[in-house]
């Protein structure tokens, strides 16, 4: 099998494919029959998806030598209110438009697996894809707040974790509870190509080029535009 993950597309390039690849339950089971695949999992509400998500995904493909990145679109993030949340179908389809890359799969895994919490999703995926190397991807903002997540330490014990710098969050995240707890096992970013195959707990932090896109900002701009239109 050719390891195309060693030569991923540059992060500024756009692939001609118009949408991200849809990932269904059947993809999960097909993965279990392919040994050695390295898959990055980027979870979130994607309300809405934006180029910052794509930016992180392309960095992960390159630096972690992944075969694919899966966007795990949450039916309803337990830490976020339902009010103001677009429907799952709207968020899912818009994420496919933003992904626009053959190695970024937009996934309804949590719907297929009937899970709401990250740890439950990861455990079920590991059960079904025992020969696949999974890595949890997240921005520095989530590293700062992950102690609020259910059984957060067990997430680090279940899969390797890769964290990417986010504007105004990196210093806070690296000074936070999670970074301190696992400081001794932090892998230098220059060695991150080996992270996917390491036994957890193992994690790394990328001081990568920052992307300014924010779902919160996009929602605020949309709401302001709608209000102006009504006036």
Please describe what this structure looks like:
With 231 residues, this protein is α/β, with parallel strands linked by helices. The chain has a single domain (13-230), classed as Rossmann fold (3-Layer(aba) Sandwich), CATH 3.40.50.620. It has 10 helices and 8 strands. The chain has helices at 25-31, 51-63, 88-99, 109-113, 118-128, 140-145, 152-158, 170-174, 177-181, 215-230, and strands spanning 21-23, 38-44, 68-73, 104-107, 133-139, 161-164, 186-187, 203-206. It has an 8-stranded parallel sheet. Helix 3 (88-99) links the parallel strand 3 (68-73) and strand 4 (104-107). Helix 5 (118-128) packs parallel to helix 7 (152-158). The radius of gyration is 17 Å and the shape is globular. The model is unreliable at 1-18 and 218-225 (pLDDT under 50).
Report a brief summary of the structure.
The protein is an alpha/beta fold and 231 residues long. The chain is 38% helix and 16% strand.
Low-confidence spans: 1-18, 218-225
Number of H- or I-type helical stretches: 10
Overall geometry: globular
Query: In total, how many domains does the architecture comprise?
Result: 1
Fourth CATH level, the homologous superfamily: HUPs
**Average pLDDT over all residues:** 85
State the CATH topology.
Rossmann fold
Radius of gyration: 17 Å
The first-level CATH class name = Alpha Beta
Oligomer: single chain
Main sheet record? 8 strands, parallel
């Amino acid at each position: 099998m050719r390891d195309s993950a060693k030569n991923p597309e540059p992060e500024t390039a756009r692939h001609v494919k118009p949408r991200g690849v849809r990932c269904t339950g059947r993809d999960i089971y097909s993965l279990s029959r392919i040994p050695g695949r390295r898959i990055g999992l980027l979870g979130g509400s994607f309300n809405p998806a934006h180029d910052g998500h794509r930016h992180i995904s392309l960095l992960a493909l390159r630096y972690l030598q992944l075969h694919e990145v899966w966007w795990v679109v949450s039916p309803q993030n337990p830490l976020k209110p339902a009010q103001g949340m677009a429907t799952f179908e709207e968020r899912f389809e818009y994420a496919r438009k933003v992904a626009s890359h053959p190695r970024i799969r937009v996934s309804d895994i949590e719907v297929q697996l009937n899970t709401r919490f990250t740890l439950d999703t990861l455990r079920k995926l590991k059960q079904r894809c025992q020969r696949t190397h999974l890595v949890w991807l997240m921005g520095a903002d989530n590293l700062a707040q992950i102690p609020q997540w259910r059984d957060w330490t067990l997430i680090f014990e279940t899969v390797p974790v890769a964290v990417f710098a986010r504007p105004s969050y990196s210093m806070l995240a690296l000074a936070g509870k999670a970074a301190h707890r696992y400081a001794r096992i932090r892998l230098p970013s220059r060695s991150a190509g080996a992270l996917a195959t390491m036994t957890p707990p193992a994690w790394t932090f990328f001081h990568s080029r920052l992307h300014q896109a924010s779902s919160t900002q996009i929602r605020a701009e949309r709401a302001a535009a709608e209000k102006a239109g009504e006036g």
